[in-house]
Specification:
Number of domains: 1
Distance between the termini: 15 Å
Largest sheet: none
Structural class: mainly alpha
Helix content: over 70%
Order of helices and strands: HHHHHH
Strand content: under 5%
Number of helices: 6
Radius of gyration: 17 Å
Length: 141
């Protein structure tokens, strides 16, 4: 077994925790709520009086659960990490804008901030020190 540094362990923990958070949210939104139910509950009703066209609300509302499920799961496995970081970062930006559009003084502390911090920590710590990833073993192979 390869030894892992403290930076590698910190990256592993941040990556897996934030991956699980997004994966489980995506799982619930895809298989219990359904992507269409997610769009109706959180996008169509909430943002119908904003500048955002309905077709875009449907598209984003249906796509976010699928992206959370796939990117979160891949991040837990440590596969295609950079793409996962970009996708999940874009989701966080979208959700932040949406909340602030409806409520300009919306508190980001409970929902968005912890995910953002974990995502950023996992992104900035050196990927080559996190040896418990599929990316690492594929590259090594």
């Amino acid at each position: 077994m390869n030894s892992i540094t403290n930076k590698g362990l910190a990256r592993f923990l941040a990556r897996v925790i934030v991956g699980l958070i997004f994966f489980m949210a995506g799982y619930w939104k895809c298989f219990e709520l359904t992507p269409i139910g997610h769009a109706e509950a959180f996008f169509i009703g909430s943002f119908s009086q904003t500048w955002i066209p309905e077709w875009l609300l449907w598209g984003i509302g249906v796509l976010i659960p699928i992206l959370e499920l796939v990117a979160g799961g891949l991040l837990v496995l440590g596969l295609f990490q950079r793409y996962c970081f970009l996708i999940l970062g874009a989701i966080l930006i979208t959700v932040t804008y949406g909340h602030l559009l409806i409520e300009p003084l919306f508190s980001l502390i409970n929902h968005i901030f912890p995910r953002s911090i974990l995502l950023i920590i996992a992104m900035v710590l050196p990927q080559n020190e996190d040896k418990w990833t599929l990316d690492y073993y594929i590259k090594k192979w």
